[in-house]
Amino acid sequence: MKRRHARETRQYYDWILSNLPPIAVPYQGNVDFYGLRRVEQGRKLLLEGRVDALITFAGRYKNEPGMEPAPYPALRRVDLGLVCHDSQYARIVLDQFDRRIQLVKSAGDEEG
Fold first, then answer.
1. 102 φ, ψ to 5°?
2. How far, in Å, CA of 39 to CA of 51, rounded?
3. Is the dihedral of CA 70, 73, 75, 81 positive or negative?
4. Are 109 and 57 in contact (CB under 8 A)?
5. Under a CB-based contact definition with an 8 Å cutoff, are residues 111 and 59 in contact?
6. Is this model's pTM higher than 0.85 or not?
7. What are the residue ranges spanned by the domains of the chain?
8. Which domain of life is it from (predicted)?
9. Whole-angstrom Cα distance, residue 12 to residue 92?
10. How far apart are CA 42 and CA 75, in angstroms?
C-alpha cells in the first residue's frame, strides 16, 4: 500500500477517514488523513488511485470491482449522538433512524 508522492521522495500511506478525527493506526510509515463530506468521495479517489486506502464500514464495498478489503480488524468504534427538537417530524425521523440502525445491526458484516 505504499506509493511515492509525485512531489516528495519519501514513502507514505494515504488514508481517507470520513467524519472522524485522525486515529492511531498500527502501520509503519506516515499516515495522512483527509476528511470527506461523503464516503463516496473516498471511493472515487481510491478507484482513481489518488489514495491508497479508505476507512469505512466493512461491508459497504464488499463486492465492489477494483476494491479489496484489507484483512485488518476494526480500528475503532465511535459513539455518536443525535439531538433534535421534540416535534412530530423529528419523531418520524428518529423512528426511521432507529429502524435503520436495527437493520444494519441485524445484517452483521453486510450493510442493511
1. -65, -40
2. 13
3. positive
4. no
5. yes
6. no
7. 1-76, 81-112
8. Bacteria
9. 46
10. 17
